[in-house]
Write a structure and sequence with these properties.
Layout (H helix, E strand, L loop, with lengths): L7 H15 L7 H10 L9 H22 L3 H4 L21 H6 L8 H13 L4 E4 L27 H18 L4 E5 L6 H11 L4 E5 L7 H10 L4 E3 L5 H10 L5 E2 L9 H13 L5
Parallel strand pairs: 1-2, 2-3, 3-4, 4-5
Helix pairs in contact: 1-3, 2-3, 6-7, 8-9, 10-11
């Protein structure tokens, strides 16, 4: 789960540390192995993405062993199918999609609203009826087309009125390109402070946003609740929330309408199933 970003070597090392504890255990006993890593490693109960990603890797490997040994897909072992098909959305369109990528011969951050119009047209032409766009994670005119925001170079506190206007124009162009039936997910990658995220969210309300993803710090349920209270768009998060313990305060304060647990980050198949069951108890969409 940490193949991208800057934790891949740490996660691999954590897997090596945990392997010494589980070699010789029965891979069918996924609950025993998960609890052993969680409770008997000192750091396990504190969590953290490196720890939970290593737990996820081992847990998923054990489920893979069980599925292969029994010659059935894992979904049959955890309750069977409840959906015959799943809807997909075209993601991260601020980097381009098909024709724009081919034209530029690389992933580039789009700038003009017209580019956002074109990229949504590309995705819709391929049959997608939902898209995800980060209108903030894009070049700034004042920066000479340098990236607006990259991991480790956040824009908190320097998002000005013309930046806000440009972000809204990008989503307006996406809505025009996709028409009224297109679902648009707006992702922020936690790049904004709470006040700016609320202002932007309010400005995006007329464009019927499906949900507003990671508007603020992903581990702060109080800030997330502040955003939810100030805007009329469902708030989503979860890629950087780990285990049931991490999700619990977001369920309890009703700050999230949609959760997005990453199987490879939040503790594996065993833990994701439990997180989804918790979400169902609180009527939160997954």
């Amino acid at each position: 789960g940490l193949a991208y970003g800057k934790c891949s070597e740490a996660a691999f090392g954590q897997c090596q540390d945990f392997a010494k504890m589980v070699i010789g255990m029965d891979p069918f006993n996924t609950e025993e192995i998960w609890e052993h890593l969680h409770r008997h490693t000192f750091w396990g109960m504190g969590g953290g993405v490196v720890v939970t990603s290593a737990m996820a890797a081992i847990d998923t490997a054990c489920w893979d062993i069980k599925g292969k040994a029994l010659n059935v897909p894992v979904y049959k072992l955890i309750g069977g199918k409840t959906n015959k098909k799943l809807r997909a959305y075209a993601s991260q369109l601020q980097f381009g999609w098909r024709t724009l990528i081919e034209k530029n011969d690389a992933l580039t951050l789009l700038y003009d609203p017209q580019d956002y119009y074109d990229v949504v047209k590309d995705a819709v032409a391929e049959g997608y009826d939902a898209v995800k766009i980060d209108p903030v994670f894009a070049p700034l005119e004042d920066a000479g087309m340098a990236p607006f925001a990259t991991q480790g170079n956040q824009i908190r506190g320097c998002y000005r009125e013309h930046d806000l206007k440009r972000s809204v124009e990008r989503i307006a162009a996406a809505r025009e390109a996709g028409g009224p039936d297109l679902d648009i997910i707006v992702e922020i990658h936690s790049l904004l402070d709470a006040n700016t995220a609320a202002v932007l969210g309010k400005a995006l309300e007329p464009y019927r946003i499906m949900y507003y993803e990671e508007p603020v710090h992903p581990l702060n349920p109080v800030s997330m609740r502040e955003i939810r209270d100030k805007i009329n768009i469902p708030v989503a998060s979860g890629e950087r929330i780990y285990t049931r313990l991490g999700y619990r305060p977001f369920f309890e304060n009703r700050s999230l309408s949609v959760i997005q647990p990453d199987v490879c980050l939040c503790g594996g198949i065993s833990e994701t199933k439990k997180i989804c069951d918790m979400a169902d108890t609180y009527d939160v969409k997954v």
